[in-house]
Amino acid sequence: MNRRSFIKRSLFTLAATGMVPSLFSRTALAAGGNGKILVLYHLFGGNDAVNTLIPYNQPEYAAYRPDIAIPAANVLDLGAPGMTLGLHPAMQPMVDDLWNNGQLALISQVGYPNHNRSHFVSTAIWNTGDPERPNKTGWLGGFIDEQNDPFCATNFGSTLPRALRGVHTSGLSIESIGGFGLGSSDWEQQLQSELQRQIQQVRSGTAEEVRRAMDHMLRSVDKVRGAQAGEFAPATTFPNSSYGRRFRDIARLIKYDFPSQVYYASSGGFDTHSGQGGVQGAQANLLAGLSEALSAFRQEMILQGKWNDVMVMVFSEFGRRAKQNASAGTDHGKGGVMFVTGGAVQGGVYGGEPNLAEEALDKGDLPVKVDFRSVYAAGAQFIGANPAELVGAEFTPINLV
Amino acid sequence: MGGTLTACGRLGARAKYRGPFGRYEATHLLRRAAARGNADEADNLAAMGLERAVDAVLDTPDLPTEQEPAYFDDANYVHEWVNHWLTTQTPLAERLTLFWHGHFATEASKTGAWNTYHKINKLRELSLSSFRDLLYMIAEDPAMLIYLDNDDSTKEHPNENWARELMELFTLGEGHYTEKDIQEIARAFTGWRVSYEDGHHYFLFYGEVHDFEPKTILGQRVHNTFNPLFEGYEVLDILLAKDQTYRFIAGKLLRYFFHPEPTQEMVNVGADVLKGGTVRDFLKWLFMHPDFYAEETRNALVKSPLEYAVGLLYAAGKREVPMDSDLSYWLRARLDQDPYNPPDVSGWPLANTDWLPDASLLQRLKFIDFATQPPDSGPPPGPIDYSVFMDGAVNPLSLVAPEAQLL
After folding, report:
1. Looking at the predicted complex, does its ipTM rise above 0.90?
2. Which of A83, A122, B31, B217 is such that its CA lies 20 to 30 A from the CA of A188?
3. Which residues, at least 6 apart from A292, have a Cβ–Cβ distance to it below 8 Å?
4. Domain that residue A261 falls in
5. Of all helices (H) and strands (E), which one includes residue A125?
6. Which of A195, A203, A217 is closest, CB to CB, to B358?
7. What's the mean per-residue pLDDT of chain B?
8. Do the domain assignments include residue A73?
9. Please, which domain of life does this record's source organism belong to (chain B) (predicted)?
């Protein structure tokens, strides 16, 4: 069942019971959705692009990184035409399942002009899509406002990212599907009835903000109940990691035709100023976790028959310096690397092979060659939104599908 | 958000509150200052009159006896803090320490729990002192030196993590310095390291890795050939001489103790008070300000999960939560505020809306049952009194009202 039929079914059910909240009628009218799904995954901390998509053949590579360079023998060469590039050895599942099937797009040297090396400012820019004025709403806020439906975008985690905040409507935020709801004990039922009574009464000031948030929460609980009630026994084993749990929950909501067209999640640990590791170590563990989870997610989506309707975009707020520091780590840099995958995605390296020669660097960093908004634009286009409205007409969607 | 606070423009930001100071006003002061209390405590404050009441809440902090690390694991550290907050005679120090811990954030998962525990104790001790004392302490703090990798910084490859956050998050705020300043400050702090003796980390200056060349920071030359250690202190002094530092800190303190959107005038006057005095002076100025008692200020802030948990346990008569309870699990895993592991170096959010996603609100409702249940054994809890915890409470079911989330 696609999004449109989900809405029809909901409307039918509600009409049958004589309660048609305005939310649903508006949604049905606005339902511009095309059934496609965009998954955004933020690697917080600034993932080191040089040790992820590795220009291992350039002499500077090993010279810049005596403690953390990946030996050429371990790099997973991509065989990309005209380039000598490979992925970190911890990403074997991504190579086997995504790259070798032509479904992994690697966007090299991605970022924005005048890069800000602050984690927080840079994250705000990625989430708002506006380096000049990181405004209060997210780059998908316009989409969520237009749909007028908080369930059209779901975050996994307890802090709603700015990407999913609109002016009038914001996305849903849940920690995990299993734990999302009040229990069935008498006490919890009493709490829920009293809460329903309390939130009828409009307040002012901050109390009103809380009241609206509680109203939002109650509706979300109701909505997630469908996915909780149904059995979910994926044929694939999702790894028992934060990545695995997030992608498993996303797959579960997709299976139960949850009306979200956007899913968002994030994981930290990428701020590797010291002890970054090489073939093994801190960054390797993070990339392995992501890689295994993505591979499992692809498998599950194929089994659900949804893989062609999904696009996953993995990003980090910036890349790191070309040279390692004295702590066998790397400091904040500029151009990063994005992974985009999905059944319809045309695999390949976008943005070209990074050049590590001193004079080609931007003050010691990989320069930015691809604006992240042109990648976002491709994601917006995929879900049937208007890229020009979300990220600006000057960013032509790059041809990923 | 509450309405615009126009009163301060008319009255002048240095004006003193001259209105009534009864239980209603004292409840607001107590809730804001301590995030816990009851009607008797509010009445006692009201009986003192405004100035003596403010002095009372700003009393010198009670310091817990430091426990040897063997006694604690991570969860117990969290638990111990909550129990201290529930029993201390100076609960303002706990809310203020939570502020400083969020401001100068370190994560125990990287520093080790003991180092962060020790850092929190030092922050509590200095919580009402000058900002200068706090900054000097944190610069030498082993948890911070480890957390922001200064321990690994050398003249060949200065690590920029501490230098960047020192300006972006701890003093000036983003946009008031250049990348070059970051690089120069990183060089000035080379050699600021930790040593490990008798099971603990200590600050140590290790000259062999220090960069002895001159540096230029925010246009000022720093070069101390007599004692290179002092270059770090000179950097702190440069930052402490900037008005912007006090505007940045005063703005954060006002968003934590006053209103989500303080006026620029309040920020400017607060910055003056903070620059010329101590954090105690600043809070005394704020707590005696007419706008602090305005209706738009009352219930304008959303409690963080730790404030919510402590306030609710105290209101439910709990004065010590047994160590074998699920309290730390509630805080760390469900309510999503692990006091020993802030989300990142920027600490916890100060914006009200950041505390209000569906997942967090739901867990706060579930926590009501845990907090208000009588204990299975042992003495019954003290009197149940929700009047300071929230306006308008009549029974435990009232705790689902939006007002329960507010300070």
Report:
1. yes
2. B31
3. A93, A239, A241, A243, A244
4. 38-177+239-391
5. helix A119-128
6. A217
7. 92
8. yes
9. Bacteria
